[in-house]
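RESIDUES AND SHAPES:
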Amino acid sequence: MTRDVVVHPDARVLAESVAARLLTHLVDVQSHRSPVHVVLTGGTVGIASLAAVAASPVRDAVDWAGVHLWWGDERFLPEGDPDRNETQARDALIDALGEALPTENVHAMPGPSDDVPTPEASADAYAQTYAAAGSPAFDVLLLGMGPDGHIASLFPGHDALGVSGRPTVGVHGSPKPPPERVSLTYDAIHTAREVWVVAAGSEKAAAVASALRGAPVSTTPAAGALGSERTLWLVDIAATEGLGTPAALSTTPAAFPPAVATQADLWTRVDHYFDALVPEDVALVDTRHSATAAGLPDIAVAANQGKLLHLIAQAAGARRILEIGTLGGYSTLWLARALPADGRLTTLELEPEHARVASESLTRAGVDQLVDVLVGPAADTLDTLAGDGTEPYDLVFIDADKESIPRYLEQTLALTRPGSVVIVDNVVRGGAVLDAQHPDERVQGVRAMVDLLTDHPRYDATVIQTVGTKGYDGFALLRVRD
């Protein structure tokens, strides 16, 4: 797919050029087709472009009664909130058009209300509005782009990137506030006859270069911004710093050499290829979303790693499982589902709020009757379990503070039996374990684990290095000796 790139001197000229180009294009399209459908974007340059449209004398050449306005994404905030793209667009352009633009031609994404309580409900309502309009091919779809390469509310590594079969999606856990949003999907974006990506500023140069060189959409979503007839990148000079292009206006189709995929890109793409083997159901997705929405750190295992834990638990015939480090309950759910009907899983979590989020997710998933969530310092809880004469565990998964791993392993011996399996996650640390002087206590905790396990009388152990969407790491696999 050819991408045309036009470079402008600065952000102000870029906004004015976008406005002039849009007005000219609308007049041209209306000469042979009506109605015309335009998707608006927010952001500094996007809103400045709309203000420039409002200020242009050419705006009256457009038959606004034949123009329908849509949005590529929206913050899930109450209607009228000043941070909504719609509110800003009304202030910049729509109010200025007055009666020339019929109210029914403005299709805003619904904000929260009794009838629309979630981003998913808003996405569904917007999809219905789109379908009622005949699911039109957008004539122009404007997109801003963030420094991370996101477009609309499709962020690197987020679930919404893979949603297909529908035009809209609810978004949770946006790295850019607010966390809840509604976005068009790639399916809707690709229906557009023309897609215009607008980007300004040196902070976006790396993402511009990555997208134009065809990086994977999983790492640079803007690379997937493609129109069915034309894809146009409208940028300022500062945003081209990573391209090596002349600092001058250019209307030549971009012919940038493809980027050499980084190892991390390759690992992520391979993980996505194998996703077919580890499909997540509603409960697993809900557990991840709930953790993100609650602001928990994004350090849970990946889906393929969760499935690995599940399979190991089944292969070991585990009836009793101990987990150290619950977080949002994602790995807990994978492990709980491997238990037989009379099985039991005990999971230990330091933070009460994390435990609350996990407990609620596990209840919705229907496994709460199999799981005990114990809150408090893991070392204290392990001592209590041992002192109470708890029945031995068949499988232990340790995914907590790495500096305490040696202590947890010694305590685990009192809670397991010969033949029990122990898994310790995140022990490679991107290779940092090679550095004996590394200042990170987590790295030193792993090195202390290795010292402990070397010639240990009760543990057989190995370490498996892993790569994937979670980067370069690995896990230790241990067996309690007979």
User: Anything to note?
Assistant: Confidence is low (pLDDT under 50) at residues 245-260.
